[in-house]
Amino acid sequence: MKKKAYRLKSSMNLFYKPDRTTKPATVALYVLFVLVCLLGLSKLLIYDLWVEVEEARHTLAVEEGRLNDVMLQLADYDEVKERYCRYAATDEERALIDRMEILSLLDKTVGTAASMQVISVTGDTVQLEFSGVTLAETAQIVKRLEESPLVASTMVSTASTTQEEGSAVDYSAPVKTNITILLQKEVEEG
Description:
The chain has helices spanning about 25-75, 75-85, 90-95, 100-110, 135-145; strands spanning about 115-120, 125-135, 150-160, 175-185. The chain has five helices and four strands; from the N terminus they run H-H-H-H-E-E-H-E-E. Helices cover about 50% and strands about 20% of the residues. Helix 4 packs antiparallel against helix 5.
């Protein structure tokens, strides 16, 4: 029989890794690692949210202060509104044409040629009575009135002369004229 050959080990592995997981220093490192992780998570999940809430509370306090200031300024709102409503033009008044414009128009067209006796302005209607001009001059006055952008239409209801009955008709004699003028708002160019 043959002799069995045994393997020969020509080198020796002297590397030995001791188990350090049981030593207190290793346990302390693991505990420290867990604490650092918890600290990081608590910053994200607790501290950052707490800072946001505090900033929101501060902003709320500032805005409530501003709101209180505004409310103090509005304390007399009802009184101011009442004064405004008393002096501000109503929708009906805004729809009316300015009376000074009407009087200026009448003064330019009628006042230079005739003597105005009665002017009555109601809404968008003007009743005008004048005298001291002839029928031809009355026609010119009516034509100038109708050229104004304020006048929608005119109607001469009476143009009577002051001369006596039975005498010959004198077209150059002064007449007493009643005119109804329908007004309109000027169209603003824009």
